[in-house]
Amino acid sequence: MEGGSIEPSELKKTIITLPSSELSRAREVPIVCLALSSGKRSASMFKHKTEVRVRYSETDRMAYVYYGNYSFYYETGRVEALRSLGLSYKSMEDDLGVFMPVMNMNVRYLRPCFYDELLILETSIIHLPELTIEFETKIYNEKKNWQIKEK
């Protein structure tokens, strides 16, 4: 672990080696909280990038992404970030009884996204979770222009 950040490989190892007594607590707190038990905090503990292409059905008649569709991009970013750590929403819910409802979403629209644009979703876990986990997702286009920031 360099500079206080946690590498995905370290998280996978931590999850795999959790004692069964700790796993029984998974019904009380998110499993990610159990996995991230180093006690260290950093400015950017974990980042994951994934790409999506804007589909026609996500736009209005002017080829702008409809503002209500950005939440789907945030969800994609969260799901893929967790998947890169060896976790899936399905296994967390089905096997561990851990649910992660969105409790708050703040969006700052900087520039519009357009039909057929390739978007990069950069999803970060800013700090070690305790009872809740906070994701921050930045969306930018192929030219690296920031489009949206969700925190």
Question: Describe it for me?
Answer:
The chain has 151 residues and is of the alpha+beta class. It is built from 5 helices and 5 strands. The protein has helices at residues 8-16, 20-23, 31-35, 70-84, 89-96, and strands at residues 46-53, 107-109, 118-125, 135-141, 146-150. A 5-stranded antiparallel β-sheet has the order 1-3-4-5-2, covered by helices on one side. The radius of gyration is 17 Å and the shape is globular. Residues 1-42 have low confidence and may be disordered.
Structure described in brief:
With 151 residues, this protein is an alpha+beta fold. Helix content is 27%, strand content 21%.
Q: Main beta sheet, described? A: 5 strands, antiparallel
The quaternary state of the protein chains shown equals single chain
Number of strands: 5
Overall helicity: 25-40%
Task: Sum up the structure in keywords.
151 residues; 5-stranded antiparallel sheet
Summarize the topology.
Layout: H1 8-16, H2 20-23, H3 31-35, E1 46-53, H4 70-84, H5 89-96, E2 107-109, E3 118-125, E4 135-141, E5 146-150
Antiparallel strand pairs: 1-3, 2-5, 3-4, 4-5
